[in-house]
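[Q] Does anyone have a clean structure-token version of this?
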Amino acid sequence: VSRQALASVSIAWPWRETGESIVRELDAATSAMSSLSVDPAIDMEGAGRFTAEEFANTCVALKKQIMQIEELACHFTTLESAKFILAKGSHGLRASKGGQAGGGLSICVKMPHELGWDRRRGGNFLKNVGKELWGEKAAQAPAGTQVCLMLRIRENIMKGSKTVPGRPAIRIIEADDLGDAMPDGHSYLSQSRIIKAYNLMQD
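[A] Here you go.
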């Protein structure tokens, strides 16, 4: 696995850290990734064919699968990052140590159909995602919106999450709210909290 690939695992990468600390982060990630199985623990389903109505109906069905004390949220990421997140042996979604609102795990409370979804990421979807989630880095939207992970988040965690000024679709879950850090020093949203993974690039 290349360092370039590993750097994409966390969208909110701590760019403000020094070059040496980033190298240490990558070395630690290399070690962690080496223990992952190539087989996914959670399979991705192609969703590029979905219409906005089909995505809306899908979200209604998913909400019925989660507990009353949970809320449905999502996390957009790259295809390569998703493979690592969904792999057997993965801890799940990693919180960043810097970035928006001081770091944490960034999730989206708007579903794809609420962001202007049309088949194969058409319509205003990428434009809206860029504006609402990336802001000044809107150009990253096409690469960072290849996969949509559907998450079940406990209400108390959601209520304690932070917001980002001007971006109401974003919630930042602080690392401390994700539980104890793993041996690699990072905090994660457990893989068990991912209820569905959609490949938006594939029908």
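[Q] Thanks! Anything notable?
[A] The chain has a mean pLDDT of 85.
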